[in-house]
């Protein structure tokens, strides 16, 4: 009796090996492409979140400074004038009175002598007669009241006599503006002085958003004594990514392109801040992103126009 044996192949054929290798290569290419796409997408999202957080931090810093802006109201000296006039035996409705001994100035003596200009905060400054806000479409300067921090006292120990040192104070003059790239005499990027293994770090220049915070008395002194070069070099370069900054001022009726608290007598009801940053996600070098925010000033009040001016304009 014969036995039948079924002989099955014990190894893969050449065709099966080739097909298996081809399928493995295709699968590895698909998996690698998916991982690369996921990684690139995560990097783009991370850069987008970082830029958004940077813009939010800058706007929050500007908002904190704007909301701390102070504007002092002149004291009402009419009761004191009446009392002094009655004490001197003169009628309070009589002729002109010399009340300079009591620290009361006449309207002619109290006129603003400081020439106010809201342009050129990058290379100079504008000193207000009373603490307040002055700004144009692209620059702003405010006087704010804030208790000094502990680290501000270390700036008084600066051995470099060429720096305009700030002093601890509860009344600061803060200015925001965008410095053009490659500025030589302006605020310098602190990364320019750093080096790694003896090689200087290359930066794109010293352009970007600048915040200058100095004591109001030091600012007035620098502006009145010809220290504008030191004043223009003072400040902190916050973000080189910011290409421009714009401000608009709400007076309760319309948006204005400039404001001066000495001229209007009050602070604006709100300030619109618009930041323009270079888009790091786009391949176009000129692509930008815009972030805007409206800040309400709690100490602002509606601007009151004088009735005489309204009557004169009406021809009455």
Automatic annotation (TrEMBL):
Per the record, the domain of life is Bacteria
Q: InterPro entries, alphabetically?
A: Pilin-like
Q: Write the record's keywords in alphabetical order, separated by commas.
A: Membrane, Transmembrane, Transmembrane helix
List all membrane-crossing ranges. Answer: 12-38
Identify this protein by name. Answer: Pseudopilin GspJ
Q: Which organism is it from?
A: Rubripirellula amarantea
